[in-house]
Amino acid sequence: MLKATFLGHSCVMATDGKYKIIIDPFLTDNPVAGMKADNVEVDYILVTHGHGDHLGDAVPIAKRNDATIIAPNELAIYVANQGAKAHNMHIGGAFNFPFGKVKLTIAHHGSGAGDGLIYTGNPCGFIVNMGGKTLYHAGDTALFYDMKLIGEMNSIDIAFLPIGDNFTMGIDDGVRAVEFLKPKKVVPMHYKTWPVIDTDPDEFADKLKGSDTEVVIIKPGESVDV
Ligand code: NI
Ligand code: MN
């Protein structure tokens, strides 16, 4: 089993009943956060890129929980330099962790920490096999045609895709991404956090009516059984 909890913006917590992971734990400065960073109890923290709205509270959460941060190499070095335990990976690579397998995918975006001026390598997305299910978290990205390959090589049970436009895919590109990935469920994310990404998830759902993918629109703090 796998239970995924949306915590606002791009933050997702997942548990198989034994292990808990969190992806892109941006909570303290997140106007729509579904949880306080101080209350997060996890075994691993996955971070797609160095931007503040994704790296967020990763380092303090890692230190308090004695948890390991899984990230692209340069970002892993950055968090390790701040005293966090880190597992360095890179795009195309997979590794078997106690909770399951993680593979890093490409993401077309930037990656910099500290107001974006400290280089933290390439951004990524994550394919997580956990609790017998497959979760894809796209991170921040443009639409890319290799999503078709990701969909062909993985039977995705749930995909978290950005639809807020401006910095990432918007509605129409997100719809196209779903057509490529063919996930059983899709949860839109990275919208409405700020006025500049104020897109309508209902429009996204409307445009996917009749597809084989179930659109799950959940509020921060709400969960979905994958
Ligand atoms: Ni970003
Ligand atoms: Mn972002």
Note the topology:
Elements: E1 3-6, E2 12-15, E3 20-23, E4 44-46, H1 52-55, H2 58-65, E5 68-72, H3 73-80, E6 85-89, E7 94-97, E8 100-106, E9 112-113, E10 118-119, E11 124-130, E12 133-137, H4 147-153, E13 158-162, H5 171-181, E14 185-189, H6 201-207, E15 214-215, E16 223-225
Parallel strand pairs: 3-4, 4-5, 5-6, 12-13, 13-14, 14-15
Antiparallel strand pairs: 1-2, 1-16, 2-3, 7-8, 8-11, 9-10, 11-12
Helix pairs in contact: 4-5, 5-6
The structure holds nickel (II) ion and manganese (II) ion.
Describe the 3D structure.
It is a single chain. The protein is an alpha/beta fold and 226 residues long. The chain is built from 6 helices and 16 strands. The protein has a 7-stranded mixed β-sheet, with helices on one face. Strand 9 (112-113) and strand 10 form a beta hairpin. Nickel (II) ion binds at residues 49, 51, 54, 109, 140, 167.
CATH domain fold name: Metallo-beta-lactamase, Chain A
Secondary-structure element pattern, one letter each:
EEEEHHEHEEEEEEEHEHEHEE
- Ligand set: nickel (II) ion, manganese (II) ion
Strand order of the largest sheet: 6-5-4-3-2-1-16
The fraction of residues assigned to DSSP E strands is 25-35%
Secondary-structure content class = alpha/beta
Number of helices: 6
Q: Report the mean per-residue pLDDT as an integer.
A: 97
What would CATH call the class? Alpha Beta
What is the CATH superfamily label? Ribonuclease Z/Hydroxyacylglutathione hydrolase-like
Largest sheet: 7 strands, mixed
Total strand count, please? 16
Proportion in helices:
10-25%
Count of distinct structural domains: 1
* Global shape: globular
The whole-angstrom Rg is 16 Å
* Low-pLDDT residue spans: none
Judging by the overall fold, what is the CATH architecture? 4-Layer Sandwich
Kindly report how far apart the N and C termini lie. 7 Å
